[in-house]
Amino acid sequence: HCEKLFHNRDYSDISSSSQHQARPVRNQAAAEEYLRKYGWTDQINWENIQRQKTENSADEHRAPQDWLDRIKEGASASKQWQQSQAESSAYIEALKQFQKANGIPVTGELNKATQEAMNKPRCGVPDRLVSESTFMDNETHDILNQTSDFNKTTDTNGGANMTGTSKVR
Amino acid sequence: KKRFVKILLSPSQREVPVGPDLFNRAPKMAFSKAKLTWRLMGEGYSNQLSVEEQKHVLRMAFRMWSEVIPLEFEEDNHSPASMVDIKLGFGTGRHMGCTRTFDGNGQEFAHAWQFGDIHFDDDDHFTTPNNGNGISLLKVAVHELGHVLGLPHIYRMGSVMQPSYIPQDSMFELDWLDRKAIQQLYGVCNSPFDTVFDWIHSEKNEYGETIIQFNTYFFRNNLYWLYENRNNRTRYGDPIPLSVGWQGIPSSGIDAFVHIWTWTRDAIYFFKGTQFWRYDNENDQAYTEDAEGKKYPKLISEGFPGVQGPIDTAFYNKRDQNIYFFKSSNVITFNVNTNQINGYPKRIIDVFPPVVQNDHPIENLNAAYYSYHYQSIFFFKSNFFWKVVNDWDKKQNPLLPINGLMPKKNISDQWFDICDVHYSMLN
């Protein structure tokens, strides 16, 4: 075995096997984290994240810090159960909204179709943002999500416009 | 700090084709400058593509937005990084001091900050356009730029702002609704044109039959656009420099285009200053000498006795076989059969009276254009146009004056998204 001492200047010879693989969403905990991360559970203040000095942990499955603090403070079992129920319903509601937005049957269950949608390559910007001046607010967002008719002029008789609808520049 | 301002969109401030209800919402944020700089950071080059390929694709992504809004982008590799408006880079895991860690191959492929920077996850397999396998860097870049400019995710089929990546067989483009979305923030492109015309040419179809076709062109300064009337937009990839598409005529500032088309004559002329050129359709370039031995360019006064250049604009009216030359507040008609002007010059306002009082360009027209698509004549001045009353208008309303000018409208309300791009992005 002879290890290469020098690599190509553009690192093109470094094999992809060294790439870190993203953890797919396969269970409820991962789905919850996905929904939280992309703003389906609570809207995210994206600009605040940009300004943060400390990084959120790369461990996606660690419970939120405030939840652990409440455990340490010895919250009562019934209080914990109520909170768990609230979070569960929030999760289901978020999941339903996600399913609806993605054209998946709205079941509130993490089924195969939902997992597939969550595991698609996607942009890291959250889907739901706080309704400040950051980006557009969600109401404008909803208007943009509607399809709308527009008046397309039709060709008159006499010379046809030779240009087609090709998308090739 | 990024240079942006909170703006209240209102009809008096921006020409934005939106309903009044949207103006009552929270103020929208947008860059306030007309030109933004960008840079692909040296420490953020991708390991997958050559630097040239990366820059080429990013340049194309910036250009695609520039083609639909009055905003230009210029690559800046010299200024201090803090002065660059948009910085882009590729990274993996914890990258470039970013607060958001990439997750490796799969799922998240990029993110962007409004009015800020764009990061691409180099653990994901990015490809150049027309390279089928992998994630199109162009599509991702256009999407992330949309965020930088102020757009959120949009759950609409066909939108470039959908959060999930959707592979496509052919090149993608910004569709009508995506254009409207970004124009809600930045307004529409609205600048005067030098000349507008339909270029008639004949071709043979598959059966050997000659068919007559037309293309609509808009000229401004040194650029031109082919306008697709059916699609309410310009041809993808336009504008193009005049010198590339129209060889032999001046490379900027064309005053007029005239196509004399009779049973016995078929000649195309371009005018600039005191001169004019004849265009050779067969060879797609200007004549230096035509079949009749006439050399070009010629003085307007020689080719059209009685007409002194420079002119503002002109058009050929096939109904009366006159060329209408416009200069200041006057119009001169030149008959192509007699080669003479007759009883002119006259005031434009007398020959083409206003339908609505005081709604008239009066003088210094930018362009006069007969549209085969609309079967109407239009006068252009500044950002507005006036339609000349035609037979159909008269049938609808017999009280309209012959050759009257209908009330003015915004050019951008009828011909959409004819936008300049930065010269560095021209092919």
Q: Level of helix content of chain A? A: 25-40%
Shape estimate of chain B: elongated
- The total of beta strands of chain B comes to 28
Oligomer: heterodimer
Give the total of beta strands of chain A. Answer: 2
List the secondary-structure elements of chain A in sequence, H or E. HHHHHEHE
Q: Which range does the strand content of chain A fall in?
A: under 5%
Q: Structural class, judged by helices and strands of chain B?
A: alpha+beta
Give the neighbour order of strands across the main sheet of chain B.
4-3-5-7-6
How would you portray this structure in words?
The complex is a heterodimer of chains A (169) and B (427). Chain A is mainly alpha-helical and 169 residues long. In chain A, 38% of the residues lie in helices and 2% in strands. Chain A is extended and about 60 Å long. The longest helix of chain B has 16 residues, at 51-66. Chain B has helices at 51-66, 137-149, 176-186, 242-245, 300-303, 348-351, 391-396; strands at 4-7, 28-31, 35-40, 72-75, 86-91, 108-112, 118-121, 126-127, 135-136, 195-204, 210-220, 223-228, 233-234, 240-241, 256-261, 266-272, 275-280, 285-286, 298-299, 313-317, 322-327, 330-335, 340-341, 346-347, 367-371, 376-381, 384-387, 409-410. Chain B contains seven helices and 28 strands. In chain B, a hairpin with a 4-residue loop joins strand 17 (275-280) and strand 18. Chains A and B meet through helix 2, strand 1, helix 6 and strand 2 of A and strand 6, helix 2, helix 3, strand 10 and strand 11 of B.
